[in-house]
Amino acid sequence: MLSYPQLIKLLLNRGIHHDEQVIALVERTRFVGGGELEPGQASDEVCGIPGADPGRVRLGRECLLPDDTYARLAETFRILADSSRAKIVHSLLRQELCTCDLAAITGLSEPAVSQHLRLLRALRLVKTRREGKKVFYSLDDAHVRVLLSVSLRHLTHEAGDPLARDRAPRPDSDERGAVGS
After folding, report:
1. Which pTM value belongs to this model?
2. How many Å apart are CA 6 and CA 34, to the nearest integer?
3. pLDDT tens across 72-87, in order?
């Protein structure tokens, strides 16, 4: 069996630089546990027939969005990838909360919560409402609610959690969890 670095060394030693040659080699090679390769068997993740389907490639490229859209999407997921920010956003699914409420709920300091909220506001994931000296935070719109709800349902579904539907809010519910029209 070959390790991944060994395969790269083998490719370079044989002067294989063209896509067709790499596809042919990958077709004859299969990744197995631990990143090792077993020669002579095709991978389940690689097409059995080399060469891309021009029609599918054209359709796929036509469906692509501008690169800056993907950059903004990646930035949104990067911001939500922090577990503290995910807790904050999840806490805001059902009700608007001030910084001190969010700090008590998440177990973070108020300055830490404020910094997280600043990032979430910059991406328009949360919005503010001032009431006297207090500032309340809520999710910016239904899209954020749907994004988080669907993600939570996906996670609980993957885990086979039978109570998932009771804990994960429905995407079409309002802040209180009531189903809207």
Report:
1. 0.60
2. 13
3. 999 999 999 999 999 9
